[in-house]
């Protein structure tokens, strides 16, 4: 497995020095010196952290914090610098964005999965606690969080284990839509927030303007802001002292039986299920028996330790500490995120846990070649072991055969899932048009949630009496000159304006309630294109609203293609139906017979195109009788057809499904 290999490679690069007791006051600890004979007795020359060393860190000497920011404002780079500064990773380890371990994270430059790292740090800069004299060393747990709107669920999960957060804002770009969303997530979780204005090395940096925005939007005192450049290192020495000084220590009692929050889990092919936990009360030792509050099952603790930043066994974890535990869990399904793990046989109050995951986007995932179903099934099972936020149920399509209906947090999440399926498991898939969960009410007053448009029978005996669709509250930040086009875009997408204010002389903030369906595919791209890339956008779930929805079928030679059915607003059906049919005509290859392509609502045809018959002769240019060359051409043609889906008697290339996806969500 690529992930495990990367982990082992990384482990070889990591040094595990701790804190230099004799480092002079008011200078930063030099990691190299930590291995010298001057190192404190508890850490001298040791590469591995022991349980007794961890015992030296009671809650008062622990800080659990997170870094939150709008995408690309520099949180992963800042995390790297903090790991280097504390000697947790070696400087110039040659792998930027250390905590972004997934291949897809590196390729796309985004953080998808929250990661945790434990650092040891001696505060040698004067703070209200240390006053610069003989300062104690601290155990700091840094939780890196994703910045993209789809992954705010991961953000809120990480925040549950923290008492504070660094709110990173780009000094040139200023506050953006996700800065606002993340600020409120942290604020509502009662976290201490340290504003960090990053990238001050940029020529266009304007930290004073950013301070004014922070004051205006969040009432943050400008004097609290730290000015940093994660690139040049400027200002970084103030960050960890501020963490120690301004973030409270974790609550909890060392004297109570162990109780811990299960933050995340993943499957490692060598070690089995690894759970990330935050110990709230008591201590957990190797060999202990612990129970899950959710399932009631009891497990033995086989291994326990910290992420430093790789798994580092310590044999014990104490109150306030964040680390990992390996038990005999066989699948991540047993490790329910947000569950409370506690001392077996003790009666404890479960911790509050997290909001359940809400799947916003559903799509069918089918093997490009029907005979690969088992391989796809295996790949999905493996992948969902490490991404519990995807829901999976088996489904069968008459057009595409056996496959799965998957629920995702958002469209980027869906894309990332597909990319990981291809990259990590070599799976070739066809995905159907994404849809949102609608609610339909029938004449007998029964209500159903519809996650697959095909499941909504067109000529049902039951009459649909009402339908509802999910909406979101969208926050959009734009330079004021783009307000006009953005308002137009939002009203085309059936948005209702809730707020329109200016955050400074140049930028406006717009809030809209918009049906989720209208934003799931290309809303963000279009918003970016009409604002020359300047808009930033975030959304949060809102309520369901009543809507006039219809099911639109696509028929090929009179046969409905279930995988292409969509649910759509009545007013848009005609236009979208027309575009879908036009697009399909371009993508479906002409065949030996005529093909009619139709869009229909119930029995009413709303658009129609005909593709005339033809046969593409690949051997036409092949003169003479070289049989091997002819064979090669025929082989090539066969290969080309591999990624086609035979629907009835018509071959549809995979791109057609992708293109439909774009059209079905356009204006
Ligand atoms: N000039 C300058 N560039 C920086 C600084 N910090 C980060 N960058 C660059 O900004 C880009 C984004 O940085 P990341 O650390 O990946 O941003 P992020 O916020 O973690 O992004 P996500 O992981 O997608 O949420 C990278 O190209 C960094 O090299 C800085 O202080 N100055």
Automatic annotation (TrEMBL):
GTP binds at residues 69-76, 144-148, 198-201. It is an enzyme of class 3 (hydrolase). Its EC number is 3.6.5.n1. It is a peripheral membrane protein. GO terms for molecular function: GTP binding; GTPase activity; mitochondrial ribosome binding. GO terms for biological process: positive regulation of translation; translation. Residues 60-252 form the Tr-type G domain. The keyword Protein biosynthesis applies. Its main location: mitochondrion. It catalyses: GTP + H2O = GDP + phosphate + H(+). It is found in: Mitochondrion inner membrane. The keyword Membrane applies. PROSITE patterns: G_TR_1, G_TR_2. Keywords: GTP-binding, Hydrolase, Membrane, Mitochondrion, Mitochondrion inner membrane, Nucleotide-binding, Protein biosynthesis. It comes from the Eukaryota. Gene3D superfamilies: 3.30.70.240, Elongation factor 4, C-terminal domain, Elongation Factor G (Translational Gtpase), domain 3, P-loop containing nucleotide triphosphate hydrolases, Translation factors. It holds the Pfam family GTP_EFTU_D2. One of its GO terms (cellular component) is mitochondrial matrix. Promotes mitochondrial protein synthesis. May act as a fidelity factor of the translation reaction, by catalyzing a one-codon backward translocation of tRNAs on improperly translocated ribosomes. Binds to mitochondrial ribosomes in a GTP-dependent manner. Belongs to the TRAFAC class translation factor GTPase superfamily. Classic translation factor GTPase family. LepA subfamily. This is Translation factor GUF1 homolog, mitochondrial.
């Amino acid at each position: 497995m690529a992930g495990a290999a990367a982990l082992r490679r990384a482990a070889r690069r990591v040094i595990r020095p701790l804190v230099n007791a004799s480092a002079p006051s008011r200078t930063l600890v030099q990691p190299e010196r930590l291995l010298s004979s001057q190192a404190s007795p508890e850490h001298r020359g040791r590469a591995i952290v022991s349980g007794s060393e961890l015992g030296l860190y009671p809650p008062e000497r622990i800080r659990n914090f997170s870094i939150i920011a709008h995408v690309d404002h520099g949180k992963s780079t800042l995390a790297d610098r903090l790991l280097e500064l504390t000697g947790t990773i070696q400087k110039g380890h040659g792998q930027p964005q250390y905590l972004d371990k997934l291949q897809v994270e590196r390729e796309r430059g985004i953080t998808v999965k929250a990661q945790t790292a434990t650092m040891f740090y001696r505060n040698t800069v004067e703070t209200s606690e240390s006053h610069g004299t003989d300062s104690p060393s601290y155990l700091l747990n840094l939780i890196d969080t994703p910045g993209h709107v789809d992954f705010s669920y991961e953000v809120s999960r990480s925040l549950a284990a923290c008492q504070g957060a660094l709110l990173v804002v780009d000094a040139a770009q200023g506050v953006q839509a996700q800065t606002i969303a993340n600020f409120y997530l942290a604020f509502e979780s009662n976290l201490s927030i340290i504003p960090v204005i990053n990238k001050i090395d940029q020529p266009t940096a304007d930290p004073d303007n950013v301070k004014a925005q922070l004051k205006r939007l969040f009432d943050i005192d400008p004097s609290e802001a730290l000015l940093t450049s994660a690139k040049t290192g400027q200002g970084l020495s103030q960050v960890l002292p501020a963490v120690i000084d301004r973030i409270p220590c974790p609550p909890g009692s060392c004297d109570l039986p162990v109780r811990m929050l299960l933050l995340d889990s993943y499957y490692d092919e060598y070690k089995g299920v690894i759970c990330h936990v935050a110990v709230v009360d008591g201590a957990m030792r190797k060999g202990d028996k612990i129970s899950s509050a959710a399932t009631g099952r009891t497990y033995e603790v086989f291994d326990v330790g910290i992420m430093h930043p790789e798994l580092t066994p310590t044999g014990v974890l104490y109150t306030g500490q964040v680390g990992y535990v390996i038990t005999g869990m066989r699948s991540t399904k047993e490790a329910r995120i947000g569950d409370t793990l506690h001392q077996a046989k003790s009666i404890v109050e479960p911790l509050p846990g997290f909001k359940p995951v809400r799947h916003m986007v559903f799509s069918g995932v089918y093997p490009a070649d029907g005979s690969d179903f088992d391989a796809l099934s295996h790949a999905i099972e493996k992948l969902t072991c490490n991404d519990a936020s995807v829901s999976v149920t088996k489904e069968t399509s008459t057009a595409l055969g056996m496959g799965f209906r998957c629920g995702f947090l958002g469209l980027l999440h869906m894309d990332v899932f597909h990319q990981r399926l291809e990259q990590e498991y070599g799976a070739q898939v066809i995905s159907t048009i994404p849809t949102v969960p609608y609610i339909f009410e029938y004449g007998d007053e029964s209500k159903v949630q519809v996650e697959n448009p095909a499941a909504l029978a067109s000529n049902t005996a039951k009459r649909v009496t009402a339908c509802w669709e999910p909406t979101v509250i969208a926050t959009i930040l734009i330079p004021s000159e783009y307000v006009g086009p953005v308002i137009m875009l939002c009203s085309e997408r059936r948005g209702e304006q809730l707020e329109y204010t200016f955050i400074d002389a140049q930028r406006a903030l717009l809030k809209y309630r918009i049906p989720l369906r209208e934003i799931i595919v290309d809303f963000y791209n279009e918003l970016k294109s009409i604002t020359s890339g300047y808009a930033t956008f975030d959304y949060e779930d809102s309520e369901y609203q009543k809507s006039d929805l219809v099911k639109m079928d696509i028929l090929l030679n009179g046969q409905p293609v279930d995988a292409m059915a969509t649910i759509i607003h009545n007013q848009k059906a005609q236009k979208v139906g027309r575009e879908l049919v036009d697009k399909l005509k371009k993508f479906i290859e002409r065949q030996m017979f005529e093909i009619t392509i139709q869009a229909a609502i119930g029995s009413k045809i709303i658009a129609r195109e005909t593709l005339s018959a033809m046969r593409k002769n690949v051997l036409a240019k092949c003169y003479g009788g070289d049989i091997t060359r002819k064979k090669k051409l025929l082989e090539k043609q066969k290969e080309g057809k591999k990624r086609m889906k035979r629907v009835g008697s018509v071959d549809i290339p995979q791109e057609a499904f992708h293109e439909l996806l774009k059209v079905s969500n356009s204006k």
